[in-house]
């Protein structure tokens, strides 16, 4: 029940606070906050299974650090670190999401009192979805359109008290509550908020990059691009905190269950086989396992790049900002997409028992599936990556000499042979060979989308309409680009393992499988311009199948290596000791339906049955 | 009504009402369906609080109450036709999740199929009148699809003329049967029959599990609810453990096999009739896939017409999100799929009824193919609908994640279809067995009929490269018939490839079974391609039966979109098989985008034609009137967390935290 869950997680929240030492980025100079490396938080959250409140509190903190002035950071940080106030981040509105310019909430400056008047002018302007807002938060960081001296200056952030610090009741003019049950996150009180001409002091507008002077003059300072930074930070953090663990846990549970569960016979003379010995089961699970490993290693490299670029951007060098933005958008979209699909696939691979909440799988799925929209809807994010690709592609095309391209798209400049060189099965186990194949496809799709767009605009169609009419192509191009990036990056990180030959061999197989699975599931793209021949497809398929049986032997150790405790898996099917059935039976007894009697029988069934019998 | 939706409806090129008649099978049936639905809508006895705000126990209680009410109402209204009962249930139970439902869907049909006349006389009247409530217990904790693996035993004791039912291990505990946990007082239990020291395999036994009058489990019976699930909150799926529990000899269902009083086992006459029930249930599930996907499409498309977001051109007002090509590309292929599956569902129902007549006249010749086809189509349609519903939910952005959208409920209620009544992968492999058998038959010189007749051409000609090259010229991407041919070629190619790979494995001196396992991924793909072909064929075959020109036009466009989308998603197969050329594939992609634009103006009317009542959609986003935001706000206010302004956790945890630090 949502109700009880809220109680429980609230009690976890404070405990986290006491176990986690000062997060590393809070102690440094506020003028140049370090990139958030909340590893300790991640560990605690991992141990607690992730169901904790106050998550948005830390989102607020990042927003404050990126958008607030030094004085503001100094004023609010002690209050939030000591939990004297609990703050949520209120951006999304009932009628408006990804498209920030569409938000309707207003903040109008009143020079006579030096206050902002915050207002919700319409129903669709109601703030909707912010976590911890419904019942928990005392303050909110509100994103609103700033009006001053009669002009609109766009989105700005305002800190607003919403509940009394004495008795927690909503302040006058504030309508606040919970938005009701969701697919998961029952423990989080996602909320709604309506503001009826609420006045706050001028100092409550976050003003690192722009401010309103007492007389109402609007002053802009610094680059507005840095506003992206909060979003980028969040997206990069989500990879390791939300997406990848969901897929990893689902893989552990499904793989362990698949060696405990016996079903049917492969050979009539033998006992029932472990379901993981069926090729169809391997075909379901091993690509997910390979993806889990791929994402784990890729994330490490993304984080490295992120930390380096973040430091540069904070120091005023924004060279890497466009690439960082495109990369974080693309990886957020791709990893969440694949983790959602993969976790659900693992759930369904556990047959009927995967449908029981006791398997732990439904809650993993319903939790990670929210990620396709939060922090940027995935389709929109892919299209942002596509714009970056298009821009750089046009640059390659128009420049005489080879331009210096950002790292992740250098393949756009190097012209490949146009033919896959594979001659035998083992060639498809060459990282260089398949990385090139993905580069070829990505480059072709980017070129194609650019061309189609150009054709439309040069035939006189407005550029915005033309973009919409070619959006599917841009989407495909961005996806292909992201796929290439992940394959290339997984291959690069393999090199670090060369000193450990045994580990290297096992992970190399996963890398091969990841690439070949991607290739075979998008076969049309590789066959399309004759890059691969039909005979080569047969070779690639053969290589793929040979990997399945090789990985089979190591499957359990590969899942054990992730080192998740039984407590954090919280799954009767995925426990380390494999005592699946005993646990299922034991856990089922604890269900309230078994411990709390049967009121429905007393109320309806008994009289009903009695009545039916007496009629005879 | 929301002005966007009104405008959309006015702009449609066809009459949605007429399309509803086509989907229902005639105007008279539409009328009767609505009449029955209105009985429920106008009946205060079926009103209750929004289930989303209730606990599982409360949801179970409401379901039991409604079931009890329903039995009375069906009598009152004189509704007896099975299909009309279905209409009635569909609206009042919304998702068909009904603790008493197994009594009707499994207990009574099994009595009818496997009980002797005497047994039927004894048990049918009380179960039909709900003096007893029965369920059907087959699946065990450790054993599902593979029936022979079940461990529960029924050992005959000639001294007392009783069967001793026993659950010898943890894995043998009956697990999952609906209505077993709390509701039923009888169960038909499947168990391995032992008599005179021999095991005779699975048989069905009627087992009383709860005491009449007190509803307490009988001595020797351990029974309960298996705990919370992804969905089906209203259903008390249960477990059952029997400890040397005795029932009279007469409680074994003995229409076919028998155990004589002295313990002699009498073998059943060989019969394929038990196929009949499976075929019926699976063909019904094909219809469910169509309905669930249609519901999800209705919600997502209506919402996409009311929701405005971003801008296509700077300065213009925010457009309806359905005007974005990417949104159309997410939803219209699914809408086309929903219509395709509606026609497939109708086809399955007809075929089942037709073949039933044959069977009753002793003609079983078509049964194997129908059995293979329903297995595959159940898997194909449920997999597709499963991911389609989820795609609809994600297309609704954040609001799709809220239970007010209704989409999470549709998904969690539908997704078990992928595993129950035969796990989908296993189903696909059953179809593959039939395909391979047919392929071998053709090879040995015998022609095959029905939907697999394309294998006849294939093997006599032995695909030659020249012939392969001859195909592309034949494909006209604007002709549903021609596209059906293309799908047929794909199916033929993949069946052939799987058969050849199977042969190759066998040549490596592997046993038949190992070879089958090592080819199973190919075999599943072959079955999928076969089913895909069947769906395209049925959809395009239906177009000519439609007289109304505007409707025929709009359905033809949907049929084309369905076929072309499938080609673009599986372009590797069509290129690899030499069925389409590269330039044709480019045309396919281009044509698909044109179709999105052509279908766009009719989107609202197309989902209106499914004719779902708001109650049965259970969705604020999918409301017919499109007044979404007002109603979301009203809905949220009812959330239990909003019952008090200050939640109790504030006093317990937050206040102490704030004062301590």
Automatic annotation (TrEMBL), chain A:
Gene Ontology molecular function:
3alpha,7alpha,12alpha-trihydroxy-5beta-cholestanoyl-CoA 24-hydroxylase activity; acyl-CoA oxidase activity; FAD binding; fatty acid binding
Q: Which domain of life is it from?
A: Eukaryota
Point out the coiled-coil segments of this chain. Answer: none
> Residues in domain Acyl-coenzyme A oxidase N-terminal?
43-86
Enumerate the spans annotated as Acyl-CoA oxidase C-terminal domain. Answer: 431-610
Q: Which UniProt keywords apply?
A: FAD, Fatty acid metabolism, Flavoprotein, Lipid metabolism, Oxidoreductase, Peroxisome
The UniProt entry's GO biological process terms, in alphabetical order, are: fatty acid beta-oxidation using acyl-CoA oxidase; lipid homeostasis; very long-chain fatty acid metabolic process
Pfam families, A to Z? ACOX, ACOX_C_alpha1, Acyl-CoA_ox_N
Against Gene3D superfamilies, the record matches this protein to: Acyl-CoA dehydrogenase/oxidase, N-terminal domain, Butyryl-CoA Dehydrogenase, subunit A, domain 2, Butyryl-CoA Dehydrogenase, subunit A, domain 3
Question: What's a GO cellular component annotated to this UniProt protein?
Answer: peroxisome
Asked whether the keyword DNA-binding is assigned, the reply is no
* Domain Acyl-CoA oxidase C-alpha1: from-to ranges: 228-390
Name of the protein in its database record: Acyl-coenzyme A oxidase
What's the name of its gene? ACOX2
TrEMBL record, chain B:
Pathway-wise, it operates in: Lipid metabolism; peroxisomal fatty acid beta-oxidation
- Per the UniProt entry, what are the Gene Ontology biological process annotations, in alphabetical order? alpha-linolenic acid metabolic process; fatty acid derivative biosynthetic process; generation of precursor metabolites and energy; hydrogen peroxide biosynthetic process; lipid homeostasis; long-chain fatty acid biosynthetic process; prostaglandin metabolic process; spermatogenesis
The chain positions of domain Acyl-CoA oxidase C-terminal read 480-657
| Record: active site | 421
A Pfam family reported for this protein in Swiss-Prot or TrEMBL: Acyl-CoA_dh_M
Q: Where in the cell is it found?
A: Peroxisome
Residues of the Acyl-CoA oxidase/dehydrogenase middle domain: 136-244
Provide this UniProt record's keywords sorted from A to Z: Acetylation, FAD, Fatty acid metabolism, Flavoprotein, Lipid metabolism, Oxidoreductase, Peroxisome, Phosphoprotein
Q: Does the keyword Manganese apply?
A: no
Cofactor(s) the protein needs:
FAD
UniProt domain Acyl-CoA oxidase C-alpha1: residue ranges: 275-436
Q: Where in this chain does the record put each Acyl-coenzyme A oxidase N-terminal domain?
A: 15-133
One of the record's GO cellular component terms: peroxisomal matrix
Q: What is its main location?
A: other
Reactions it catalyzes: dodecanoyl-CoA + O2 = (2E)-dodecenoyl-CoA + H2O2; octadecanoyl-CoA + O2 = (2E)-octadecenoyl-CoA + H2O2; hexanoyl-CoA + O2 = (2E)-hexenoyl-CoA + H2O2; (6Z,9Z,12Z,15Z,18Z,21Z)-tetracosahexaenoyl-CoA + O2 = (2E,6Z,9Z,12Z,15Z,18Z,21Z)-tetracosaheptaenoyl-CoA + H2O2
Residues that bind FAD: 139, 178
- Keyword Membrane attached: no
Q: Which family does it belong to?
A: Belongs to the acyl-CoA oxidase family.
Listed PANTHER family: ELECTRON TRANSPORT OXIDOREDUCTASE, PEROXISOMAL ACYL-COENZYME A OXIDASE 1
Name assigned to this protein: Acyl-coenzyme A oxidase
């Amino acid at each position: 029940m949502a109700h009880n869950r809220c109680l429980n997680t609230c009690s976890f929240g404070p405990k986290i606070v006491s176990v986690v030492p000062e997060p590393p980025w809070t102690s440094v100079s506020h003028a140049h906050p370090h990139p958030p490396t909340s590893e300790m938080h991640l560990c605690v959250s991992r141990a607690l299974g992730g169901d904790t409140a106050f998550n948005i509190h830390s989102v607020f903190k990042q927003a404050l650090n990126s958008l607030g002035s030094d004085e503001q950071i100094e004023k609010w940080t002690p209050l939030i670190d000591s939990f004297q106030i609990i703050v949520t981040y209120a951006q999304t509105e009932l009628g408006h999401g990804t498209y920030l310019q569409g938000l309707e909430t207003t903040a109008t400056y009143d020079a006579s009192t030096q206050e902002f008047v915050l207002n919700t002018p319409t129903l669709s302007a109601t703030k909707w979805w912010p976590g911890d807002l419904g019942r928990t938060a005392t303050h909110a960081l509100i994103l609103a359109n700033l009006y001053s001296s009669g002009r609109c200056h766009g989105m700005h952030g305002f800190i607003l008290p919403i509940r009394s610090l004495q008795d927690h009741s909503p302040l006058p003019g504030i309508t606040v509550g919970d938005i009701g049950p969701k697919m998961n996150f029952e423990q989080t009180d996602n909320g709604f908020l309506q503001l009826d001409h609420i006045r706050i002091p001028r100092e409550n507008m976050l003003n690192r990059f722009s401010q309103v002077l007492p007389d109402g003059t609007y002053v802009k300072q610094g680059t507005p691009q840095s506003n992206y930074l909060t979003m980028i930070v969040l997206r990069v953090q989500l990879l390791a905190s939300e997406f990848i663990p969901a897929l990893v846990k689902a893989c552990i549970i499904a793989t362990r269950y698949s060696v405990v569960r016996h079903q049917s016979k492969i050979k009539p003379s033998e006992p029932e086989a472990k379901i993981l010995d069926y090729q169809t089961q391997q075909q379901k699970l091993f690509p997910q396992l390979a993806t889990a490993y791929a994402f784990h290693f890729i994330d490490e490299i993304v984080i490295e790049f992120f930390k380096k670029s973040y430091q540069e951007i904070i120091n005023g060098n924004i060279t890497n900002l466009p690439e960082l933005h495109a990369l974080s958008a693309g990886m957020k979209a791709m990893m969440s997409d694949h983790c959602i699909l993969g976790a659900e696939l693992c759930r369904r691979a556990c047959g009927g028992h995967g449908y029981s909440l006791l398997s732990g799988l439904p809650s993993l799925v319903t939790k990670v599936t929210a990620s396709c929209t939060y922090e940027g809807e995935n389709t929109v994010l892919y299209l942002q990556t596509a714009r970056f690709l298009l821009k750089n592609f046009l640059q390659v095309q128009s420049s005489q000499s080879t331009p210096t391209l950002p790292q992740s798209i250098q393949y756009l400049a190097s012209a490949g042979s146009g033919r896959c060189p594979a001659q035998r099965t083992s060639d498809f186990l060459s990282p260089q060979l398949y990385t090139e194949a993905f580069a070829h496809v990505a480059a072709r799709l980017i070129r194609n989308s650019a061309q189609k767009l150009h054709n439309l605009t040069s035939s006189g169609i407005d550029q915005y309409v033309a973009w919409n009419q070619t959006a599917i192509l841009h989407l495909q191009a961005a996806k292909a680009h992201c796929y290439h990036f992940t394959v290339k990056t997984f291959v690069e990180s393999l090199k670090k393992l060369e000193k450990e030959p045994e580990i290297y061999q096992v992970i190399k197989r996963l890398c091969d499988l990841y690439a070949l699975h991607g290739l075979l599931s998008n076969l049309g793209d590789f066959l399309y311009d004759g890059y691969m021949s039909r005979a080569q497809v047969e070779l690639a398929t053969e290589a793929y199948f040979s990997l399945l049986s090789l990985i089979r032997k190591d499957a359990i150790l590969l899942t054990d290596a992730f080192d998740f405790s039984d407590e954090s898996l919280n799954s009767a099917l995925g426990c380390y000791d494999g005592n699946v059935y005993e646990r299922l039976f034991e856990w089922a007894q604890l269900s309230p339906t078994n411990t709390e009697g049967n009121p429905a029988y007393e109320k309806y069934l008994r009289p009903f049955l009695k009545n039916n019998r007496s009629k005879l | 009504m929301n002005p966007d939706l009104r405008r959309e409806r006015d702009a449609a090129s066809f009459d949605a009402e007429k399309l509803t008649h086509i989907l229902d099978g005639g105007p008279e049936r539409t009328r009767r369906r609505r009449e029955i639905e209105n009985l429920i809508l106008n009946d205060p006895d079926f009103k209750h609080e929004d289930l989303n705000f209730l606990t599982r126990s409360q949801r179970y209680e409401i379901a039991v109450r409604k079931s009890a009410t329903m039995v009375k109402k069906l009598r009152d209204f004189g509704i007896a036709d099975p299909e009309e009962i279905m209409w009635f249930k569909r609206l009042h139970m919304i998702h068909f999740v009904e603790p008493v439902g197994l009594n009707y869907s499994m207990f009574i049909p099994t009595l009818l199929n496997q009980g002797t006349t005497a047994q039927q006389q004894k048990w049918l009247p009380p179960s039909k009148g709900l003096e007893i409530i029965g369920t059907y217990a087959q699946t065990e904790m450790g054993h599902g699809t593979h029936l022979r693996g079940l461990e529960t035993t029924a050992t005959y004791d000639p001294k007392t003329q009783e069967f001793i039912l026993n659950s010898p291990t943890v894995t043998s505990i009956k697990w999952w049967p609906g209505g077993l946990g709390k509701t039923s007082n009888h169960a038909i239990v499947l168990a391995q029959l032992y008599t005179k020291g021999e095991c005779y395999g699975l048989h069905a036994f009627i087992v009383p599990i709860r005491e009449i009058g007190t509803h307490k489990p009988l001595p020797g019976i351990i029974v309960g609810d298996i705990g919370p699930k992804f969905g089906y909150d209203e259903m008390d799926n249960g477990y059952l453990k029997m400890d040397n529990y005795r029932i009279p000899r007469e409680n074994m269902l003995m229409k076919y096999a028998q155990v004589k009083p002295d313990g002699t086992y009498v073998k059943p006459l060989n019969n394929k009739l038990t196929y009949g029930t499976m075929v019926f249930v699976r063909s019904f599930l094909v219809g469910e896939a169509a309905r669930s996907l249609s519901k999800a499409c209705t919600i997502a498309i209506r919402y996409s017409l009311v929701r405005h977001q971003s801008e296509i051109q700077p300065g213009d007002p925010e457009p309806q999100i359905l005007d974005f090509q990417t949104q159309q590309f997410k939803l219209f292929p699914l809408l086309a799929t929903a219509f395709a599956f509606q026609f497939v569902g109708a086809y399955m129902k007809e075929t089942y009824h037709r073949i039933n007549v044959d069977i009753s006249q002793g003609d079983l010749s078509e049964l194997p193919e129908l059995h293979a086809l329903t297995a595959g189509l159940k898997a194909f349609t449920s997999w597709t609908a499963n991911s389609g519903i989820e795609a609809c939910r994600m297309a609704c952005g954040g609001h799709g994640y809220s239970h007010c959208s209704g989409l999470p409920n549709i998904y969690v209620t539908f997704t078990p279809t992928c595993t129950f009544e035969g796990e989908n992968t296993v189903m696909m492999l059953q179809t593959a067995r039939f395909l391979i058998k047919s392929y071998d038959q053709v090879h040995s010189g015998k022609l095959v009929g029905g939907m697999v007749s394309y294998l006849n051409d294939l093997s006599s000609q032995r695909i030659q490269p020249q012939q392969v090259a001859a195909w592309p010229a034949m494909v006209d991407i604007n002709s549903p018939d021609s596209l059906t041919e293309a799908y047929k070629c794909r199916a033929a190619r993949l069946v052939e490839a799987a058969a050849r790979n199977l042969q190759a494995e066998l040549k490596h001196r592997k046993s038949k079974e190992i070879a089958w396992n090592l080819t199973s991924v190919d075999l599943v793909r072959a079955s999928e391609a076969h089913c895909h072909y069947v769906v395209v064929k049925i959809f395009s075959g239906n177009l000519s039966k439609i007289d109304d020109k505007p409707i025929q036009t709009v359905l033809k466009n949907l049929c084309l979109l369905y076929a072309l989308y499938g080609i673009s998603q599986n372009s590797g197969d069509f290129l690899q098989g030499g069925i389409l050329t590269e330039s044709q594939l480019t045309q396919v992609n281009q044509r698909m985008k044109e179709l999105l634009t052509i279908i766009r103006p009719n989107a609202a009317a197309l989902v209106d034609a499914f004719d779902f009542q708001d109650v049965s959609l259970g969705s604020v986003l999918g409301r017919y009137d499109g007044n979404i935001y007002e109603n979301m706000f009203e809905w949220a206010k009812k959330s239990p967390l909003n019952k008090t302004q200050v939640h109790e956790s504030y006093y317990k945890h937050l206040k102490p935290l704030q004062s301590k630090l």
